[in-house]
């Protein structure tokens, strides 16, 4: 199949496309691409002219082929005694009711809708309802701060925001509606006002009476949505019409709105899901990610549902009430396919094997990992302890931009090597290049690029096609540049080595160093900041911030806390620095560029490996930094 997919991508992918429902078939050309900036604008199209709808393919099609009674979602609440489920028919009805409401509220094809919801069933319902009416959803992870949410709202100018009043995660109640209120007033001050804020009353966390309310703008989901009909006409869209926007971090401060379109993304998520997890109709699949990230888009909502799979949606924290919760859920729903991130594996590994072995886990069949390179010891623990040495591990390398898996094992297809994502998926042609952009052959290491497009690749950065070209296609002309380092061993296996740009990967969450820096310098007592990633036992990478204070401001524990709080408030708790290192000055070149290479060495205490410091404008800052290491 791989050989076929490379030799005849049009034939290969149209064969797969014909397994889906198309209102009208695509034009003569299956795909057209220009990814070479030297030959003009970057443009990628797959199945242009084909008319379809991804919600129809996820729901109606499954009901029509007799799967209406099959469970689509098992929902597990934060507390294990609160749960629920929906069959495919029931899910379709709920999606139609919301779609009808949204249409009535004036939302049309091509309008954006921001969704700020935790892992309730209403989150995939809201995504699917938008897709059904051709609206573009932009899900913002409900751990982002009001400021980050406002920034995204101001960028995509949605017609409506969908949220809930509160959520319980572990022992804590989080008041999401307050965050939305703050974000909406901030965006209104900047001229973007939102007319509709549909709010789900999440009674397991908080009753509606305790929620602050803006008459006229805010509407309780439960008061309006259930009144609408349970069927809703589908808005048929072109394969190249936008499906969603998802903001992700880059190496500058402003988040990038990654735009995915409908047709190619549909085939790609469905096919990667099917093969990388060896999906069978009897499987019960659980992915521990949140729908606020790409993993939840492609591998909680779309990929699995396009296959008619039964999906577990979990509201809570995976270590609440204790480190055995995941295996409790696996046994409760007889989960067969379990997909998670190395950071969670490492934290469960530290908690001890007895939390795992206490549960049977005999339903498990295939395990998956995503988000960052999985270190071989975590891989072995996952394989031996969690999977009782019988479940293959799919270590899936991909990105928000790629839409779906790019380098991944196919379970049982070939021997595994702990820590390697193994080989490219169908249609994917990796290239490892050197700094000059020359493709390396055989055993080598360098920058990971991709040749040619594939159906699931993103088509642009929302409102900024130039940044799209500059970031991804200009560094190595003729290729898509991933931003990752990679090596290939003598057997042809790929080994991802982490980001080579100014992006840090904290617990599988991508954070731009520039974003954290701009949050820090917004603090009145901070004059300059430089952020680097350091190795972290559980999170993979931790955030290490060098901070220069305004003249005359003394260092204090209180100030350290207040700087961290500023980052939490501006970005979200997951971006809080692990370490603040007071810096009387930062190492800069004569042209004023901060030398992060040196800061990375200082942060990881590799002081004898600082390298060439002769290009620094003021080499004495290094000594000052080293003596202040422990502050
Ligand atoms: C970056 C993409 C794709 C969903 C989760 C994160 C890193 C992701 C792996 C893996 C090594 C990985 C890369 C990539 N990454 N999966 N299996 N092995 N590294 O999505 O936020 O778009 O981040 O995550 O560095 O570039 P994202």
UniProtKB/TrEMBL annotation:
Occurrences of domain AMP-binding enzyme C-terminal (ranges): 515-593
CDD domains from the UniProt entry: ACS
Domain Acetyl-coenzyme A synthetase N-terminal: 1-58
One biological process term in Gene Ontology: acetyl-CoA biosynthetic process from acetate
UniProt-recorded Gene Ontology molecular function terms: acetate-CoA ligase activity; AMP binding; ATP binding
Reaction catalysis annotation: acetate + ATP + CoA = acetyl-CoA + AMP + diphosphate
Primary enzyme class: ligase
Enzyme Commission number: 6.2.1.1
SUPFAM superfamilies the UniProt entry points to: Acetyl-CoA synthetase-like
InterPro entries: Ac_CoA_lig, ACAS_N, AMP-bd_C, AMP-bd_C_sf, AMP-binding_CS, AMP-dep_synth/lig_dom, ANL_N_sf
Membrane-crossing segments per the record: none
Domain AMP-dependent synthetase/ligase, first and last residues per copy: 68-460
Pfam families the record matches: ACAS_N, AMP-binding, AMP-binding_C
Family: Belongs to the ATP-dependent AMP-binding enzyme family.
Protein name per Swiss-Prot or TrEMBL: Acetyl-coenzyme A synthetase
Natural source organism: Trapa natans
């Amino acid at each position: 199949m791989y050989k076929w997919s490379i030799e005849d991508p049009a034939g290969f992918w149209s064969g797969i496309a014909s397994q889906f429902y198309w209102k009208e078939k695509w034009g003569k050309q299956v795909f057209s691409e220009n990814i070479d900036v030297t030959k003009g604008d970057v443009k990628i199209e797959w199945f242009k002219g084909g008319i379809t709808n991804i919600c129809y393919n996820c729901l109606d099609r499954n009901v029509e082929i007799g799967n209406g009674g099959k469970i689509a979602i098992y929902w597990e609440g934060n507390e294990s005694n609160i749960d629920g489920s929906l069959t495919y028919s029931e899910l379709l009805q709920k999606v139609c009711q919301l779609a009808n409401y949204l249409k009535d509220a004036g939302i049309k094809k091509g309008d954006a809708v921001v969704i700020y919801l935790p892992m309730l069933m209403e989150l995939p319902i809201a995504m699917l309802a938008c897709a059904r009416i051709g609206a573009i959803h932009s899900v913002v992870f409900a751990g982002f701060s009001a400021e980050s949410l406002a920034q995204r709202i101001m960028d995509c100018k949605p017609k409506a925001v969908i949220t809930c009043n509160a959520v319980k995660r572990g022992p804590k109640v989080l008041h999401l509606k307050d965050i939305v209120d703050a974000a909406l007033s901030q965006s209104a001050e900047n001229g973007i006002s939102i007319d509709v804020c549909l709010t789900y009353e999440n009674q397991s966390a908080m009753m509606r009476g305790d929620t602050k309310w803006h008459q006229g703008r805010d509407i309780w989901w439960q008061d309006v949505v259930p009144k609408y009909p349970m069927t809703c006409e589908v808005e048929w869209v072109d394969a190249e019409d936008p499906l969603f926007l998802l903001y992700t971090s880059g190496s500058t401060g402003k988040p990038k709105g990654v735009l995915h379109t409908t047709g190619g993304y549909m085939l790609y998520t469905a096919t990667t899901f099917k093969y990388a997890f060896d999906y069978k109709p009897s499987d019960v699949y659980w992915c521990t990610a949140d729908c606020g990230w790409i993993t939840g888009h492609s591998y909680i909502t779309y990929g699995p549902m396009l296959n008619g799979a039964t999906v577990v949606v979990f509201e809570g924290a995976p270590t609440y009430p204790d480190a055995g919760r995941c295996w409790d859920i696996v046994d409760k729903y007889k989960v067969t396919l379990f997909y998670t991130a190395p950071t969670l594996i490492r934290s469960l590994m530290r908690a001890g094997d007895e939390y795992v072995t206490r549960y049977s886990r005999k339903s498990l069949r295939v395990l998956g990992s995503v988000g960052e390179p999985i270190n071989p010891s975590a891989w072995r623990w996952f394989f031996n302890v969690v999977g009782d040495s019988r479940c293959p591990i799919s270590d899936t390398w991909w990105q928000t931009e790629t839409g779906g898996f790019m380098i991944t094992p196919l379970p049982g297809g070939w021997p595994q090597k702990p820590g390697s994502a193994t080989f490219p998926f169908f249609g994917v042609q990796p290239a490892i290049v050197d700094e000059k952009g020359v493709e390396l052959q055989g055993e080598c290491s360098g920058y990971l690029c991709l040749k040619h497009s594939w159906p699931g690749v993103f088509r642009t950065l929302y409102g900024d096609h130039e940044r799209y070209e500059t970031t991804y296609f200009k560094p190595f002309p003729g290729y898509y540049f991933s931003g990752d380092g990679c090596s290939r061993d003598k057997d042809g296996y790929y080994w991802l080595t982490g980001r080579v740009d100014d992006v840090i990967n904290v617990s599988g969450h991508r954070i731009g160093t520039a974003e954290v820096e701009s949050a820090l310098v917004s603090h009145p007592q901070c004059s300059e900041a430089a952020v680097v990633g350091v190795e972290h036992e559980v999170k993979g990478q931790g955030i290490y911030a060098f901070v220069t204070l305004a003249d005359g401001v003394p260092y204090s524990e209180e100030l350290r806390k207040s700087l961290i709080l500023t980052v939490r408030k501006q970005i979200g708790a997951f971006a809080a620095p692990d370490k603040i290192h007071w810096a009387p000055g930062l190492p800069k070149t004569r042209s004023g560029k901060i030398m992060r290479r040196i800061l990375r060495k200082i942060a990881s205490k590799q002081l004898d490996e600082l390298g060439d410091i002769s290009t620094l404008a003021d080499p004495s800052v290094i000594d000052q930094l080293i003596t202040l290491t422990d502050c």
